[in-house]
């Protein structure tokens, strides 16, 4: 059985909920990623922030990214998978909620992220085509 841990990108970094969006943007640039998990003071996952979130929910609204905290953009309950989850379960969840990246958790700690690039490297062409159709076709 292939698990989430087998296909994830290890070493994901969190932006702290009290960090500014400016800090989050710099982290994304430095890490060459388009999203970051938001972790709270309790070291638990509170959400995910994307470069698009920063642009649309901060900059486009005339807000200052140096003043807006990452935690302000964490909405709802974040979706995540356990490191031991079967890849089929991961795909089902991502397709159901139409999400393109998902944090991987082990023992209540962030251990990695699964993105579309990770899926492309590890799935069969048929699995990947089904994922793409499920996530993008219904939008």
TrEMBL record:
Cleaved signal peptide residues: none
Record-linked PROSITE patterns: CBS (PS51371)
Superkingdom classification of source: Bacteria
Domain CBS, chain residue ranges per copy: 8-65, 73-134
Keywords from the UniProt entry: CBS domain
Matching Pfam families: CBS
Protein's name according to its UniProt entry: CBS domain-containing protein
Organism name: Saccharopolyspora oryzae
């Amino acid at each position: 059985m292939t698990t989430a841990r087998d296909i994830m990108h290890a070493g994901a970094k969190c932006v702290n909920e009290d960090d500014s969006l400016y800090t989050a943007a710099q982290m994304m640039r430095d890490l060459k990623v388009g999203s970051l998990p938001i972790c709270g003071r309790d070291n638990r996952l509170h959400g995910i922030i994307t470069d698009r979130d920063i642009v649309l929910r901060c900059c486009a609204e005339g807000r200052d990214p140096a003043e807006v905290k990452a935690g302000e953009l964490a909405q709802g309950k974040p979706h995540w998978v356990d490191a031991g989850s079967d890849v089929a379960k991961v795909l089902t969840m991502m397709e159901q909620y139409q999400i393109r990246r998902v944090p991987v958790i082990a023992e209540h700690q962030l251990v990695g992220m699964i993105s579309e690039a990770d899926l492309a490297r590890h799935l069969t062409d048929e699995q990947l085509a089904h994922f793409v159709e499920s996530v993008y076709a219904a939008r």
